[in-house]
Amino acid sequence: MRRTWITGHCWRCDAPNVYVLWLGPVQSQDHGHAPFSCCRPCVLRLEALVDAYNRRVPGFR
């Protein structure tokens, strides 16, 4: 997967004007959808959470 970092706003830690990576669309029940982008520290944190989830859910993989 190719990652393209752009200057933007991190939707996880609320940091403005940082390099962010688009992770996909986020959907709201009441307000539609928007692009979900995070800075490097937040991307790494999300990757750690995904890894932890996959390790503790039996038969997930």
Set down the secondary structure blueprint.
Layout lengths: L4 E4 L9 E11 L3 E8 H17 L5
Antiparallel strand pairs: 1-2, 2-3
Top keywords for this entry?
3-stranded antiparallel beta sheet; alpha+beta; 61 residues; 38% strand
User: What structural category arises from helix and sheet content?
Assistant: alpha+beta
Q: Mean pLDDT across all residues, rounded?
A: 91
Topology pattern, helix = H, strand = E:
EEEH
- Identify the strand order in the major beta sheet: 1-2-3
The biggest beta sheet reads: 3 strands, antiparallel
Give the number of helices: 1
Overall outline: globular
**Are there runs of 5+ residues with pLDDT below 50, and where?**
none
Whole-angstrom Rg: 14 Å
Q: Kindly estimate the percentage of residues that lie in beta strands according to DSSP.
A: 35-45%
Fold and architecture overview:
This protein is an alpha+beta fold and 61 residues long. Helix content is 28%, strand content 38%. It has one helix and three strands. It has one helix at 40-56, and strands spanning 5-8, 18-28, 32-39. Strands 1-2-3 form a three-stranded antiparallel sheet. Strand 2 and strand 3 form a beta hairpin. The longest helix is centred in the C-terminal third of the chain and has 17 residues, at 40-56. The radius of gyration is 14 Å and the shape is globular. The two termini are 20 Å apart. The mean pLDDT is 91.
Q: Quick recap of the structure?
A:
The chain is α+β, with helices and mostly antiparallel strands. The chain has 1 helix and 3 strands; from the N terminus they run E-E-E-H. The chain has a 3-stranded antiparallel sheet.
